[in-house]
Design goal:
About 30% of the residues lie in helices and about 20% in strands. With about 170 residues, it is of the alpha/beta class.
């Protein structure tokens, strides 16, 4: 596998963005999207690009208390039911010095709304010595539970294609 997309999603919007990013990445590399509960704590040498995303809760990455609040507000089952990206990143280990990363979030589309889970994700990846290959990216929802703003899935797929182009397939 060339690229691993790890995501946390409460209502399914971030999952849909992660899957669209993985489809875009697949234009140039082997990519897989995994919900954070199924993601490995050790990212091996077969991964050249690690893309991590989650919803913005209370101006940052989710915490146990904000996930509990999301569960109370949910109109159905949550996608991510256990630990979130914050906890996964705390336990993350990598075996490749050349690993690149990209961070994204989903957030409410309101002008001048502060906070971003993606910036916190990018910061934690840097602390692990993983270099960012692009600035953190936000994708927008119309309300707390969504839906996604029109055009965001296509924008996410295109972002994935841009990321894949940064990692050309090595000549054999």
């Amino acid at each position: 596998m060339d690229a691993l997309v790890v995501y946390e999603s409460m209502y399914g919007n971030t999952r849909r963005i992660a899957e669209a990013v993985a489809r875009g990445l697949a234009a140039g590399m082997v990519a897989e999207a995994l919900e954070v509960g199924a993601a490995p704590a050790l990212v091996g040498e077969d991964v050249r690009l690690l893309v991590v995303g989650g919803p913005t809760h209370a101006f940052s990455m989710s915490r146990a208390s904000t996930r509990q609040f999301a569960a109370q507000q949910a109109e159905g089952a949550l996608v991510s039911r256990g630990d979130g990206v914050r906890e996964w990143l705390a336990a993350l280990r990598t075996s490749s010095a050349g690993l690149g990363s990209a961070a994204f979030d989903t957030r409410i589309a309101k002008p001048r709304m502060p906070g971003s889970a993606a910036h916190g994700i990018a910061r934690r990846l840097r602390r692990h010595g993983v270099r960012a290959v692009v600035p953190a990216q936000s994708f927008y929802v119309t309300g707390t539970q969504g839906p996604l703003v029109e055009g965001e899935l296509e924008r996410a797929r295109q972002w994935g294609e841009i990321l894949a182009a940064l990692f050309p397939t090595p000549a054999t």
